[in-house]
């Protein structure tokens, strides 16, 4: 059976990730982004032993709502969201920090079977973000949108720069073209592990997501506008950048109805359309 690893980073029990210097970090085959190039990207952090630690990414989809992966928040830890960040170990004056008032995990999420899908959650912030050049709302794709094989996309995050490596201090990105479902579900790729509610991207053995990138976005330009088509979910347990084992994302367009239902239940969660 294929094994896979979720991409949250929970550095507990004295193993917390130490700050690393800015400059030469590379997220598994990626590069440092221009500061605040992805203004809808957030850092999800948890409180442990007197300080906050990055664990996952996410996307600001409304001024007081964030979309992330379910496995990022299915524990009893205390979390916060930092928007407008670039270097997570420095105060740059552009950050907006929020406590979380409500966590809504997809009801079908099963932490014991990530291959079943549903790795998506919505976080209600305790207050609303101020939109500016550093903090913007993500644009979500239309319901059911499927991108073609090799469609150009980018992952972004503060995840580990190599398998079992350190978190990046600065936001990194990597070019990950889409691997269509027919290819990704073939026996030489992920087989039946992937579902049609997921998006595969990358798999060249060089560039990939890694621990700490979970929940973050897969950005794909459609009609001249970047949309968040994926929520980073898992990679192979053999390593982050294993050839023919693309990074797997929750396909956002498969969950627009669920997001809309949460909207109705929560009294007005809005979400921009692609």
Task: Briefly summarize what is shown.
The protein is 5% helix and 32% strand. With 274 residues, the protein is mostly beta strands. The strands form 2 sheets. Strands 1, 2, 9, 10, 11, 12, 13, 14 and 15 form a 9-stranded antiparallel beta sheet that branches. The chain has a 6-stranded antiparallel barrel with strand order 3-4-5-8-7-6.
Give the % helix.
under 10%
Span between termini: 37 Å
Residues in β-strands, percent: 25-35%
Oligomer category: single chain
What is the overall shape? globular
- The helix/strand order is EEEEEEEEEEEHEEEEH
Structural class: mainly beta
Radius of gyration: 17 Å
With helices defined by DSSP (H or I, 4 residues minimum), what is the helix count?
2
Please provide a written account of the structure.
The chain has 274 residues and is mostly beta strands. It contains two helices and 15 strands. Strands 1, 2, 9, 10, 11, 12, 13, 14 and 15 form a nine-stranded antiparallel sheet that branches. Strands 3-4-5-8-7-6 form a six-stranded antiparallel barrel. It is globular. The termini are far apart. About 7% of the residues have low confidence.
